[in-house]
Amino acid sequence: MIGKLSGRIDHRAEDHILLDVRGVGYLVYCSDRTMAALPGVGEACALFTDLVVREDLMQLFGFPTLLEKEWHRLLTSISGIGAKASLAILGTLGPEGLGRAIALGDWNAVKAAKGVGPKTAQRVVMELKDKAPSVMAMGGTLMAAQGEEAAEVIDAGDAPVPKPAAPPQPAAGSATMAAQSEALSALTNLGYSPSEAARAVAEAAGEAPDAATPDLIRAALKLLAPKG
Description:
By secondary structure, this protein is an alpha/beta fold. It has three domains: 2-65 and 148-154, CATH 2.40.50.140; 66-136, 5' to 3' exonuclease, C-terminal subdomain (DNA polymerase, domain 1); 171-221, Helicase, Ruva Protein, domain 3, CATH 1.10.8. It is 47% helix and 18% strand. A five-stranded mixed barrel has the order 1-2-3-5-4. Helix 2 (66-75) runs antiparallel to helix 6 (132-144) and helix 8 (194-207) crosses helix 9 (213-224). It is elongated. InterPro entries: DNA_helicase_Holl-junc_RuvA_I, NA-bd_OB-fold, RuvA, RuvA_2-like, RuvA_C, RuvA_C_sf. Residues 1-64 are annotated as: Domain I.
């Protein structure tokens, strides 16, 4: 399986690039968000990839981070969600926004993705509500380990190997994601279920996107405290 590609962009289209890797051109399909963050033609580029093989088709889909690739894997595990629908959702929300939407049960946010109807959006939220917290908790680790994935890597030869592109995120980047991951882990260690911990952390992070881990934990605990 092709897990990562590094090379130079030969051509850019609306939804894919042609990536030259040591003289071999790969068509890699990306979300709108990723396409907007990629460099221009002739420049170096690296993407984590997922290869979809069907009887009459082979397609590569590219992601700027391991975390986004993991979200793609979860989304496409849902019946009726194909690779293109997954890219539409990730392109609209980004990995952090998707995690927050699922934790809060906000299927309307998922529905904002092009081609995703209300029933599909509700299915995404319902089917991933118990799986999403583990990916959210992995977020900081995956961001730190980016580039060390133990998948097959096809090198670009003499071309400098760039860091994967980082598309705009709804929050402040890997440090913010790490804080949310640490807060989520702390709450589950305190005995809260992954789903209720994720919901509280997502709500707290929505109110204070740049909050540090201790502040997120305190805010989430207040949200989880019995009312009345």
